[in-house]
Amino acid sequence: MVYGEVEMEHRYQYDETGVLRRAEISDIDGEVTVLTFDENSRRT
């Protein structure tokens, strides 16, 4: 939070073994960037 406003928001999803599979990043304008990851947590 900056001056009472949320500037960015990150949401992460992990598989059942704890490996990062997806990240959603929202900016102050509401634009969402979705990143997906393989079983080795590498971006796909």
Number of helices: 0
Distance between the termini: 30 Å
Calculate Rg over CA atoms.
13 Å
Give the strand order of the largest sheet, numbering strands 1, 2, ... along the chain: 1-2-3
How many DSSP-defined strands? 3
> What's the average pLDDT?
91
* Helical content band: under 10%
Major beta-sheet overview: 3 strands, antiparallel
SSE class:
mainly beta
Helix and strand topology:
Layout: E1 9-14, E2 20-26, E3 32-36
Summarize the structure.
With 44 residues, the chain is an all-beta fold.
In words, what does this structure look like?
- The chain has 44 residues and is mainly beta.
- It has one domain.
- 0% of the residues lie in helices and 41% in strands.
- The chain has no helices and 3 strands.
- The chain has strands spanning 9-14, 20-26, 32-36.
- A 3-stranded antiparallel sheet has the order 1-2-3, with no helix packed on it.
- Strand 2 and strand 3 (32-36) form a beta hairpin.
For this entry, give a set of tags:
mainly beta; 44 residues
